[in-house]
Design a protein that fits this description.
Layout lengths: L4 E12 L2 E12 L3 E5 L6 H8 L6 E7 L2 E2 L5 H5 L3 E4 L11 H6 L11 H7 L1 H5 L10 H13 L5 E5 L7 H16 L3 E5 L3 H4 L5 E6 L2 E7 L7 H8 L2
Parallel strand pairs: 3-8, 3-9, 6-7, 7-8
Antiparallel strand pairs: 1-2, 1-4, 4-5, 9-10
């Protein structure tokens, strides 16, 4: 594992009960990179993120996070390696206010953003600080879900379909947020169905099909791979 590597996954298999979902995933993510996992629904992208944080059933193979083998660690131990996971379902506590949701996460490492810094990044949340989770729009809930993991001090962010179903103005705001976090040195793995959202943000792309990585390419090779992406994704 090189000094710049944050994640190295080798021959990863994962199951939900009897269902064998990942079939030997190999990928790496360097420090400060934005990497996009592309693929059709059911290709194994979300399961790859869930396996990284210990939320699948059986896992076999190797997941090293900053050099530490994580396949045998419990989810709370993996989180303490500086990993923040933003699931597709967001997980906002409906009965708590936006600010109470922000104050809930534990400190995993030094350097988490303060509430004031969060409000600077997401002015909408400042305006809605005292609103219960049920009163927040989908876009505000998504901003809150992302903001919450930034409070923990995590520097490796796993973001699952954060643009899904949101208004274009919110999607644009989330794209700006990812650029800001990249500039601050965060390492980000994006699972995205919205190719137009992910395409300008990612340094590298992995394409998944049937629980395997079938293609890897860099931002500079994006144009040359559009025909392949059309075939796999219909973009």
């Amino acid at each position: 594992m090189s000094a710049r590597e944050t994640v190295r996954i080798e021959n990863l298999h994962a199951w939900y009960g009897e269902s064998h979902v990942l079939h030997g995933v190999n990928m790496h993510v360097d420090e400060g990179e934005v990497v996009a996992l592309l693929g059709r629904n059911g290709a194994g992208r979300t399961t790859t993120l869930r396996a990284m944080v210990g939320l699948t059933g059986t896992r076999k193979g190797s997941i090293r996070i900053r050099g530490q083998e994580a396949t045998k660690l419990a989810p709370h131990r993996i989180a303490r390696l500086g990993v923040g996971y933003c699931p597709e379902e967001r997980g906002i506590f409906a009965s708590l206010t936006a600010e109470e949701n922000l104050l809930l996460p534990p400190t995993l490492a030094a350097g988490g953003l303060t509430v004031a810094e969060i409000y600077e990044m997401f002015p909408n949340l400042k305006e809605r600080a005292s609103s219960p989770g049920t009163r927040l729009s989908g876009g505000e809930q998504q901003m809150l879900a992302v903001a919450r993991i930034l409070r923990t001090g995590a520097r490796l962010l796993l973001l699952d379909e954060i643009s899904e179903g949101l208004a274009p103005v919110i999607v644009q705001k989330l794209a700006e947020t990812i650029r800001t976090l990249k500039a601050k040195g965060y390492t980000i793995v994006l699972v995205e169905q919205n190719f137009r959202f992910a395409a300008p943000l990612a340094d590298r792309f992995y394409v998944m099909e049937h629980g395997k990585i079938v293609k890897e390419f860099a931002q500079s090779e994006l144009r040359a791979n559009m025909a392949m992406l059309q075939e796999f994704l219909g973009v």
